[in-house]
Amino acid sequence: MKQVVLSYRNGDLAVMDVPAPLCKPGGVLVRTVVSLISSGTERGMMALGKKSIVGKALDRPDLVKRVVDKARKEGVVSTFKQAMGRLDTPSALGYSLAGVVTETGEGVTGFSVGDRVACIGAGFASHAESNWVPANLCAHLPDEVDFESGAYGMLGIIALHGVRCAHPQLGQKVVVLGLGLLGQLAAQEMVASGVEVFGIDIDPSKVDLAKELGASAGCVAGTDAAGRVLDFTGGHGADSVVITAATTNDEPIKVATDACAPGGRIVLVGVCDVKIDRQLFWEKEIEFVVSRASGPGVLDPAYEVKGRDYPREYVPWTQQRNLAAFLDLLANKRVDVARLTTHRYPIQEAGKAYDLVQKGSEPHLGVLLEYPEKNDTRRTVSLETTPVRAVGDRVRTGIIGAGLFGRAMFLPALKASKDLQLVSLATTTGVNSHHYARKFHFEKCTTDYREILDDRSIHAVFILTRHNLHAEMVCAALAAGKHVFVEKPLCMTEEELDRITRAHAQSPDQVVMVGYNRRFATLTRECLGFLGERSAPSTVLIRINAGAVPADHWAHSQDEGGGRIVSEGCHYLDLAMALTGEMPVSVFARQATSADGLNLGDEAGITLSLSGGSVAQILYTGAGDRAFSRERVEVFCGGAAVSIEDWKSAELCRNNHRKVSSRFNLDLGYDAEIAAFARAARHGKDVIPFEIFAASTLATLRAVRSMGTGRSEDCAFTGVGPA
Length: 723
Hints:
single chain, alpha/beta, Rossmann fold, seven-stranded mixed β-sheet, 34% helix, 26% strand
């Protein structure tokens, strides 16, 4: 399948052959017929990509500060890898298309195979032969609307939402400043609203086009535009000014302020430097609004991805309802986009289209990409890559999932492993699957993880997906006869743990390992070696200053992340087990509550009682400052004491002697745990018994239960599934 992709590392553009997308629940698979290049947005993305690292940093100083803070806490090398991982991530261009539904996902109503649709959304309605698009970002094409016109959907509703923000009323006179694609669409939509439009642009041909398409008057920017507007409005000024221009200076704001009537409104839809003359705004009492893209629902994952619509009686014009309204305007001939289309290119020649958009070698407005009627629907693509070293007897391995964490921490270590042969990489997007499979020398890439499980040449899998998928994938991998490494947590519920336990019992020769990397860290092993064999119980203190995570982050979601204790707190219950060498017996946990009585999901104290009499106290908090150390571990036993500070230094004390062990870079144990799993998979024998991972999982889930019941909870793992 062909798709247009931009590299953020250097701004290069390519038409890549990538695996076709999988149709997921909540959306539809669409064969693209036509897509529209958004010249301003996509030109800006390419310009940013071509900038040096310093240039990118100057553009986003907020991100630079976050990188510096992260480096202080997690080490320069680790932070550098993750930052470069972000820059290395290719971006799928495009966010507006029209096509035909070829498959519908589970839970989707209102769309059927064969439906003609318009689709919107960055990351969904891309310049690709086939796209998976959430249902809330699709609308039916009326019979009167052709595919070319329908491809204008996203630009049409960005303009439409800006028009709505201007509150146009019948008989008003308004200004549209900037008559590119957005401006031409906004001007026509304003006319359809019953107002008179005055258009302004630096290009006289665009002013003429706007007048041909319904604007009452217009002028070229710089020719006393504000004075011309006053003449147009009988000296009163415009009731509203909609800025759709794209520039780096503040000239549009100045012109809009001069042209606006007292009590009027300025709406910024495009991009410019916002410098407001307070005195003029005060004298005229002007209202200033920044229109946010395409309307309510934009940037809300619950709306866009999960399909949770807003009630019409409270939010009448969501993205989807705006899209349907725009298509109705096209059907009723109240908006004409045919006159806006200046160029058409087949997808194979997308490079020529972007050369035109970037260089402006000839006048252009609407630039469309056209797609073949039949396309490649393969979801696995073989790659021409050269293995780093001879295959030998290494374990043939498939990887499922390649998010930022997996790309930065796991894939480099997996590629360097002498015991693993990387065979196939599965991610949900074909672009990422293809890019990272080539980068890390996989033999093939796919968008369907089941094809990895069905591949008999693959003996082991790494599951690096979001948490809600872990249990299903672990069970499926065991049933397929694969050794399994799953990044923490093992699962999110006791029912899932029971299913995994039973699946493992049916496949006892298959290795299952959970990504509790801290038990493999160099300083952990050094402390355990210092403490040596112990007959007396230990006391363990673990404090995690995890930092706040936004309330809408997926880790908090019970559907995807399971909450922060399940998603990350599990690390530290496992670490307590590793430090004591004992199994959990019971757990008591309390959750911090706010003044209004609400539980705080990332504020908890956990007391874990262990089988040899040891006790561990775990404090997990998101309320601390990031300048403070993130993790501190202390163990006291038999006259000895050890501590670990942020996995960079350890203090070892016995008989009044103190030794400090320090490391320049963070070592959280990723390389060592991968090596341990590779050895286990090669020999078919667990390095760490499955029961230990199951026990730490059960203890974590029972800790969450204890927060609700207020009681201590038994958490001894019986080996036959939780009670």
